[in-house]
Amino acid sequence: MKRILTKIALVAVAATVPVMASAQAALEGRWANPHRSVIVNVTRCGEAYCGTVGWANAKNRAKGVGAGARVLSDLKPLGGGLYKGRAYEPKRGISGSATVHQVGPNVMVVKGCAVMGLFCKEQRWTRVS
């Protein structure tokens, strides 16, 4: 009986490992803001994730949002598709805390807050193929 329980436990642990790895890896990719005026490339940066602008429309480029600008940094997984880190808003030169919640394989909600959490903005980003 003890052997059977041990085998069941090992199978259960083995079955969850690929799911957790794929859930974390799913954050990586190209994401567009709601107006599709900016595309952010999210990649691993050491032990966390970061997001840099890969493309911006002419209006955003004129406001200082150029390719290569890091807009998300130090995003660390908390579980359940939730990540916490830092955000930078290049148009205004404001940085603050960030919360990213991946609500599906192709949708994530990005929330950035500045001035001790008094001023927050939330956007729903979609994956770009």
Q: Which helices and strands occur, and which strands form pairs?
A:
Blueprint: H1 2-25, E1 29-32, E2 38-45, E3 48-56, H2 58-62, E4 70-79, E5 82-89, E6 94-104, E7 107-114, E8 119-128
Antiparallel strand pairs: 1-2, 1-8, 2-3, 3-4, 4-5, 5-6, 6-7, 7-8
In a few lines, what is going on in this structure?
By secondary structure, the chain is α+β, with helices and mostly antiparallel strands.
Which short descriptors sum up this protein?
129 residues, alpha+beta, Lipocalin, 8-stranded antiparallel barrel
Strand arrangement within the widest β-sheet reads 1-2-3-4-5-6-7-8
Low-confidence stretches: 1-24
In round numbers, the mean pLDDT is 83
Task: Please give the CATH architecture.
Answer: Beta Barrel
Detailed description of the structure:
This protein has 129 residues and is of the alpha+beta class. It has one domain (2-128): Lipocalin. Helix content is 22%, strand content 53%. The protein has helices spanning 2-25, 58-62; strands spanning 29-32, 38-45, 48-56, 70-79, 82-89, 94-104, 107-114, 119-128. Strands 1-2-3-4-5-6-7-8 form an eight-stranded antiparallel β-barrel.
